[in-house]
Amino acid sequence: xxxxxxxxxxxxxxxxxxxxxxCPECSHEGPLxxxxxxxxxxxxxxxxxxxxxxxxxxxxxxxxDLLEAT
Length: 70
Prior knowledge:
mainly beta; two-stranded antiparallel ribbon; 1 helix
């Protein structure tokens, strides 16, 4: 059984970048490398909305990052 995949190149790609974060509270949006506040607490790295202060992402820092911090 074959599958036909259609690709329409007549429409330009969207203006937004793929790596865009959105704040669920205030709808602020921006690329990860843009204006998000980065904070570390213990073993977590937090990305915080610069407009309303909501934490939009929480990641555990890697073991090597923790060793470098001490």
